[in-house]
Amino acid sequence: MTETMFTLPPSLYVPLLDLACGAFLLTGMMVLWRRDLAAIVRLFALQGIALAALIVVLGVYEQDVELVAVGLGVGALRAGLLPYLMRRALIAGGAGREVRPVVNVATSLLVAAVLAMLAYAVAQPLIRLSPTPATQAVPIALTVLLVGFFVLVTRRRALSQVVGFLLMDNAITMTAFLTTSGVPLVVELGISMDVLLAVLVFQVLTTRMRAAFGGTDLDELRELHD
Amino acid sequence: MSTLLILAPVGFPLLAAGGCAVFGWNRVTAWLGAAAAAGLLAAAIGLAVTGPGAALWGLLRADALSAYMLIVIGVVALLAMSASPAYLAAELAAGHTWPRAMRRYGVLTQAFVAAMALAVLSSSLGMLWVAVEATTIVTAFLVGHRHTREATEAAWKYVVICSVGIALALLGIVLVHYAAAHVGVASLDWTTLSQHAGRLDPGVMRIAVVLLVLGFGTKAGLAPLHAWLPDAHSQAPAPVSALMSGVLLSVAFYAILRVKVIADAALGTGFTRLLLVIVALASLVVTALLLLAQRDYKRLLAYSSIEHMGLIALGTAIGGTLALAAVLLHILGHGLGKSVLFLSAGHLHQAVGSSRIHAVRGLAARAPLLAGAFALGLLALLGLPPFSLFASELGIARAGFSAGLGWVIAPAFVLVLVIAAALGRHARDMLLGPASPAGAIPMPRSVAAALIAGLAACAVLGVTAGPLNTLLRTAAAIAGALP
């Protein structure tokens, strides 16, 4: 099986890897810029495709059929099923725009630049351990992780928070595939299952929130305090 | 035999969940949870006696530490599940719940117990993560059980904060896997990792350990990511609060105990110790600040959980068999005391209709049994003899001073005293004084039995750990092992 597989020369592997990583980063950053919730979900789906492409490129380069299959599975979940679920929640909700964010777009992008530098600094020990083209892209994954966290803290719509969480999760998956060829398969399956269930939980809670508060603006959540 | 004993703690609750799913919540299935918990406890004791074993192609493994944690899960689940039928019956009578929600309660509580059992039986860091995240998903609906604005808000905060925390832990696991793969060990298995821990790259491991301690610390209710805990614990149904506070926090902390073994071998004991000392002191400070002006007795208990998790983190920071044995005893004692308190607080909430401290006056005169259980439970949590928390806190303090960590122990116990004073003042307001005209509060026999059994067990443990002693020592040796 492996002998018949197409081999990827390094001259093609590195640019393809960088292209996938670039697309991953760009879609992550664009989430900061867009306010239309439908567009944010589309960006998330695009990022899922970039992630799947990255894993497939790694798989083809390492001539690992299982890795290619895992990449396709990750793509189906993160570019297909999860965006589908979120779009359904969005249609059920009606309201399609992020309300005025706590931090405006220009500041958000500046913060993202600072976060990127932070990610680069933190990733140094990881690159030093094994400086391959793949591990050198780890700072990109960590940048998206921090951007996801930033989206989660500063956005006020329930769906934007979910996207923030999923950006973090995409970034962790990317780190796993860049550093080693992913965590063991049983664990990867468990993780995908948990993420899927978490999104379903978010969806149910959003519906309940709409019933109880009349909207999904999280500023309404102020019943509980000391 | 050992395979069956390892599968039983996960299997019994799943069977009970299936029973509730098929037959709904009725007079018989209401007791399935308690039966499953008793079965879990029996299997845990069996595992403690027969010694280590593995099942399911090595995915599950039980050693003394797993067996001990299973005993804690079994004991607290037994208390919480015995009080559940009466609790839900009262909720139904008051119109706060309905048959479909009760069926869901039956299924979810059992799935919750099964996920916790799976977490402590996992042989690898990856499976443990999956199980801990599964507890978040299952309990989200239990926290939001009442469907009110407050419950929905608490459930949302709970899922968001815990998912983010646990995502950090996942990144930590990915990095551990990276460091391990670099030395040719493509595995996340505990024993394999600790055998090779000395060769793992310290630069990568430092980042990984920080992420793992912060991540699992979130789920364990440790500062700085503790904000979900008071909301979730005060909104969940009382038996679920007992389970969450009594064992879920400790199960999450169990992950830190396992991580510490690997971290200490890779980085030396100093790194994790410093990290744990910081989160422990931060947790104690947060509790002390927020308890003084607390107005809600369920949140009071929730903050007290943050305090005790802080003490447990402190004991773990000290390390060594003596301190870790005290930590494990503290986990069991806190599980018992806190479940008694949450169950009595739930009963009180149903009778009074409010969880405000000032809504409760003269409880000792109105409901002597309930007030007695509440008062004794509080005394247990304040670490007074004869309860086991006295012995374990003393053990932690002694181990700390002999390890030369007096500069941490002293401020920590000053904070504990402040917390004790705040709790005592609030309790005095609730328990003493003239009885309000509302009259006596009747207590179902099953709830009374659970409360008395919990307190008695906590007191007996304080006098003598008896047959548990050997298990405690073996489990502490595993948690404190240095290869």
TrEMBL record, chain B:
Coiled coil: none annotated. It is a multi-pass membrane protein. It is found in: Cell membrane; Membrane. GO terms for molecular function: NADH dehydrogenase (ubiquinone) activity; oxidoreductase activity. One of its GO terms (biological process) is ATP synthesis coupled electron transport. Residues 122-411 form the NADH:quinone oxidoreductase/Mrp antiporter transmembrane domain. Its main location: membrane. The keyword Heme does not apply. It comes from the Bacteria. This is Hydrogenase. It comes from Acrocarpospora macrocephala. The lineage of its organism: Bacteria, Bacillati, Actinomycetota, Actinomycetes, Streptosporangiales. The gene is hycQ.
